[in-house]
Amino acid sequence: MSSNNMSSGEPNKTSGQFHSTKGTAVEAIGNMTGATSWQNSGREEHAQGEAEYNAARAKGYAEGAADRVSGKKDAVVGAVTGDKSQQAQGNARHDKGETQQDINRKI
C-alpha cells in the first residue's frame, strides 16, 4: 500500500474514499484468513484513506471560506461604487463559497 495516496500532491476525496474502502476490504480478508499482515495493511490503508478524505474536505471548506470573504468584499465595493457587475460577481462568488463550505462541512 502506498504511504501517499495523493498522486498530485493534493488531497482528493474520491481517492481517499477508495483507499478507505479498499483498506477495510483488505482488513476483512485478513480477519477471515488470519493473515495479520493483511489485517495490518488494511487498517493502515483505511486510516490513510480517511486522513486523505478529511484533508480534502478541510481544504475545500477553507477555499469556500476564502471565496465567501472575497465575494462579499467585491459585492460591497460594487454596491458602494455603483458597479452592478462587480456587485453581482461578488454575490455569485460569495454564494459559490457558501455552497463549497456546505458540501465540505463535517456532519
Walkthrough of the structure:
- The model is unreliable at 1-5 (pLDDT under 50).
- The relative contact order is 0.14.
- The chain is rod-shaped.
- The protein has helices spanning 13-33, 36-81, 84-104.
- Helix 2 runs antiparallel to helix 3 (84-104).
- With 107 residues, the chain is mainly α.
- The longest helix has 46 residues, at 36-81.
Task: Give a brief outline of the structure.
This protein is mainly alpha-helical and 107 residues long. It has 3 helices and no strands.
Topology:
Elements (H helix, E strand, L loop, with lengths): L12 H21 L2 H46 L2 H21 L3
Helix pairs in contact: 1-2, 2-3
Helical/strand content category: mainly alpha
Low-confidence stretches: 1-5
What is the overall silhouette?
rod-shaped
The number of helical segments is 3
Largest beta sheet, briefly? none
Relative strand content = under 5%
User: Taking all residues together, what is the mean pLDDT?
Assistant: 92
Number of strands: 0
Distance between the termini: 29 Å
Helical content (DSSP H or I, runs of 4+): over 70%
Following the backbone from N to C, one meets helices and strands in this order, namely HHH
Rg: 21 Å
Please tag this protein with its features.
82% helix, 107 residues, mainly alpha
